[in-house]
Every structure is written in C-alpha cells, then in structure tokens.
Amino acid sequence: MIPAPFTYKRASSVEEALNLAAQAGEDGKFLAGGHSLMPLMKLRLAVPETIVDIGRLGELSYVREDDGHIAVGALATHDELARSGLVGSELPLLAHAAGQVGDPQVRHCGTIGGSLAHADPAADLPAVALALGATFRTRGPSGSREIVADDFFLGLFETALQPGELLTEIRIRKPQSAGWSFQKFTKRGIDWAIVGVAVQGANVALVNMGATPVRAAAVEGALASGMGPSQAAAHAADGTSPPDDLNGPRAYREHLARVLVRRALEESAARA
Hints:
This protein is an alpha+beta fold and 272 residues long. The chain has helices at 14-24, 37-42, 78-83, 85-90, 92-98, 104-109, 112-118, 124-131, 149-152, 217-224, 229-233, 250-271, and strands spanning 7-10, 28-31, 50-53, 63-66, 69-73, 135-140, 143-148, 153-155, 158-159, 166-173, 180-185, 195-200, 203-207, 214-215. It folds into 3 domains: 7-53, Uridine Diphospho-n-acetylenolpyruvylglucosamine Reductase, domain 2 (2-Layer Sandwich), CATH 3.30.43.10; 58-173, Uridine Diphospho-n-acetylenolpyruvylglucosamine Reductase, domain 3 (2-Layer Sandwich); 180-271, 2-Layer Sandwich (Enolase-like, domain 1).
C-alpha cells in the first residue's frame, strides 16, 4: 500500500528537530532508520501529517563510557552496537542481541532509539534494555528527563514519551555479573521472535510474551529464593499474556518461554 500524504522535514540538530515537532503537534512523528515507522505508514496503521527526519543527526550517534555507565546515542545503529569493541567488552548481551536483529540491511539502517521508541513487544532490544536495567534520557517541550526502562513501555507500540519528546540517549550501568544470555526462536533468522529471552545476571526479560516487553518477575523471584535454572524456568510464563496468532497458540509460546529461559539461565550461569 501507499502511505497517506504527509509533510517531510529534515532536522539538522536536536534543537531544530524539537522545534519542528512542536510545530507539527500530536500529528508529527520522528523518523530515524525508518524500519519500524515506514511499514506502519504503508499499511496506514500510522498516519502522521508531518515527518521530522532525524536520521542525519551525528550528535545522537555515539557509544562512550561515562561515569561507570555506557552511554549510547539513540541513533547508534544495530550494526554499530554489534561491532563496537566497548559494547562487546562491557555489554556483551547488547552487542550480541544487536547482531541478531533482522538482516544486514536492517542492522545498518535501524537504530537502537527507533527500536525502543517503537516499542514492539516482538522486537529484541526492548527486552534487552529491561534486562540491562537501562535508563533513557529524553528531550522535549518540558525539558530533559530520565525514564527507567521498567517505566518506559506502557502498551502495544506505546511508551512514556510525550508528544514532541525525543529519546536521545540510552544509559546502562556496567553489569556487576558477567553472566548473560540471549535466546530467541524464529521461523527464519530474519524474522521477529516468536518468543525470546534476555538474561543479565539475575534479571530476566521476555520478548513477545505480552503487549509490552516484560520482566519475568516469577523467574527472578524463583532465582532469588535459591532455585536452580530448571526450577526457576518452570515459572517463565507466570503472569504473562502472550499473543495467540498464526505463529502459534498461547500454550505454544508459554512452552517456548520455559525452554528458552532454562537455556538462557544455564548459559548465563556458565559465563558467570
């Protein structure tokens, strides 16, 4: 299908992007890599009147150390994260997961900020951000603020971002535990995960097991009580609401979650 007519504006700075978004009001959208927004526009599931292109804002494309954290600009691409020596050494979970997103074309164009702001529960990086305990820095009409990952994802394609507010940076404290794992089950390597799991230390987050990426609270509680990987993984589907669709019924996803969480916990423990 063809998107509905819209006005295209390219920003040359974050400040200009915010001004353009303010002029557009609630009918404006930011465009970064475009791999999330453009398909929705073609299906007319998203019909913005104004597109503000931020894809060339170099000030938002970086990876650096900052006071015990790794700071990642929102426009860092999946490929840049996967190949970054700093991310690979300090946040191997993020580097590995970024290297598993889609195909090379998607990884070279898609950005971490776009993936997080799009908030697709079937996407890999939102769950990774939850497992890593990330904090998101934003700028908008009301100024700058920080939002922890646990409070960011509100519903299907819905986040805590306000109209005209831009995600600018993802901050992740260097993990104390070396144990990590990322597992996902797909029909093909380039497909969205039918179910996925990200583990960092005692944090466990699930992909495609609800309307948002979710923390596997029951698994985390079981681990805290002293249960081993197999026993804790048996609680992987507790409190979740996975979709029932052409890729499989709810019971199938619940089974996959238990299997993948067990594998992830075992792999994480072996790395710790």
